[in-house]
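QA checklist item 7 of 12: single-chain prediction sanity check.
[x] sequence parsed
[x] length recorded as 849
[x] structure emitted
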Amino acid sequence: MQSVRTRRKVAPATANGGDSAEKLDQLLLSSAICNGEDLGSFVRKAFASGKPETLLHHLRQFARSKESEIEEVCKAHYQDFIMAVDDLRSLLSDVDSLKSALSDSNSKLQSVAGPLLSSLDSYVEAQNISKNVDLALKSIVSCMKLMELCSRANHHLSSNNFYMALKCTDAMENEFLDKTPSSTLKRMLEKKIPAIRTYIERKVNKEFGDWLVEIRVVCRNLGQLAIGQASSARQREEDLRIKQRQAEEQSRLSLRDCVYALHEDDEDGFNSGVESDSNGVSGLLGFDLTPLYRAYHLHQTLGLEDRFKQYYFENRKLQLTSDFQVSSMTPFLESHQTFFAQIAGFFIVEDRILRTGGNLISKIEVENLWDAAVSKMCSVLEDQFSRMQTANHLLLIKDYVSLLGVTLRGYGYPVDALLDVLSKHRDKYHELLLSDCRKQIAEALAADKFEQMLMKKEYEYSMNVLSFQIQTSDIVPAFPYVAPFSSTVPDCCRIVRSFIEDSVSFMSHGGQLDFYDVVKKYLDRLLAEVLDEALMKLINTSVHGVSQAMQVAANMAVLERACDFFFRHAAQLSGIPLRMAERSRRQFPLTKARDAAEDMLSGLLKTKVDGFMTLIENVNWMADDPVQNGNEYVNEVIIYLETLVSTAQQILPAQVLRRVLQDVLSHISETIVGALYGDSVKRFNINAIVGMDVDVRLLESFADNLAPLFTDGDANQLKTALAESRQLTNLLLSNHPENFLNPVIRERSYNTLDYRKVVTISEKLRDPSDRLFGTFGSRGARQNPKKKSLDAMIKRLRDRFIANSIWLSIRPSNSAHLINLTLGKLEFGGLTRLLDYLALGRNVVSLEF
């Protein structure tokens, strides 16, 4: 046993002062070797000094010193070594004896084990045979299982149960292909398994292709059904809004006897709607996504999932692209429902597949398809709308597109771009609608016979009067009923109401909630630009008689009430409170036509009256006795006016009749004054004035008799139409005509008289004594005070105003203190105004004559 000695470091001995350098180097080298240090420094030093032999010499001396140490160690362990050798020799003899004993035992064992070995060989052979039999049995069982799987696979294939067939082939491949003992079966499996999978893939692709063909028809029907359901829902909302408007109208009219009823929704329809929302409306058409999901699942089983996803997406994209095609052989109006329904059904199906098909299609892919579809639909709408020239066609397409938007918005698709296209063509639609209404109104007015409308049944009254709220009383009249208006009024009302409903229909369901202002703007245009101009044209070209003009004026009064209904109807359809509509209501939009109708009626009546007023030429202006019962002309005029009023009050409203009669009476008054002022009357006496006073009184009596038809204010206004002739008669019959010169009295009693007419007419008045040669007999007689006052008035008027008088008009300039004056004929009071301005220190910058 080798002993282990602990290594210790040897410190180099310090050399005495007399040791040589060589001895020191040897000590340092011995110390480094004992300590196990690196000797590289010593080698480099020896070679650097050129004395490697010295280093070798030192190393040899160190080796000799170590050999002596080894000898000492060997001597120390020599006795132990001798003892170990002796032990080995005794062990060798024991081994030899054991070897001989083992040899004897082996001989005995072989003699005894011979028969046993032969028996063992027989046993091993029998065991091998048993193992072979077991292996054969296992192989048979495995083959039987394999054949059973093959049989089941064939059965599944024959019954088109492809998934189970694939499971069988997978089991055969994973469990039996590498373990089957039969090479024939293995070759068969290696050949048939890929063939089965190829067959299944081909069959599934064929079924999927058939599904792709079928789904296009299903999508169209599905889209039509979904849009139809949206239309039904919209109709229910419209019905509900109608009921709400009726309730609001009853509340506005303070009707307390309201009938309340609870209406239950159709549960079947409701449930079907819910089912369609939760189940993708697939069950409503027998629509089934099983072929698609089956193909997808089988491709997943075949390990072809990504390939099938790509194949599905590409085919559906091609189908969508094919759906975008718009046939040039069929008008878009006839094909637009199919076009949009096909696209709607496509995306309803895709939404269903996105939600229930696992990862067959991604949300990004559906969004990309939808973006392409929206872009195409927008371009198609832009192109088709730009070609359309009929408002009704554009409205039909707009309504269907809005239903499409409502339908697909329910499935989460953004439809703002489609609604923007509809809003973009709002102005064009209304322009076409205005053009259509212009033609319809022109046709309705052209067919007017200017006769009062006869209604024989209550439904006619409801259809032509109540539906437009143009009745003057809530009491239903007896039938047959003769309306104060002609057939033009309900015809025009129907056209305007249709315009409102079409406008609201276009504006509603388009993304804009508050659209009443837009509808009102186009309604104002329809009334002010189309209807008003058409009525103006009718009045100027087709009205030729008093009866026709009266009928048109009556129609205008009824249309004024109808206009209130139009704006209320527009507000109700637009879903805003009536109080807001009434707050924003403008003045009557048919003012021009109404004024023209009244002017036309007044003009025709004036012409007719002028025919009777020509009888004023037969008046004896120098009568010896005053006329007691009025002159012939005024009696004829009153008879005509009374006949006119008896007819007009049946159809004309009181306000219209008052305005027309006021204009006619004013014209009669002006004609009477004009007759005295004109050249045809050279002179007249007081008896003629008394007769004229009787004429005016008869006219005033006629106006008073009409008081029951009007309010007190209107009756007074009717009498003021005769103010000029009345004031002139009062002045000429007055005992103090010079009071006309008093500004206060003139403003109170003679404010309608023109001083020039007063001067001219007063000069024609002759005193009864002023007869032919009457001056010779009456010379020296006392002058009539009235005549004297009249002459004084005439003289003072002539003296006050310059002959060939000047007129003065004052035009203020930009500066408040600069006045531009133009001098011409001077009207009454003109010089006084001039003096007043000059007295105030105003600067006159221009004076024109």
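[x] summary fact logged: The first strand starts at residue 454 and ends at 455.
[ ] second reviewer sign-off
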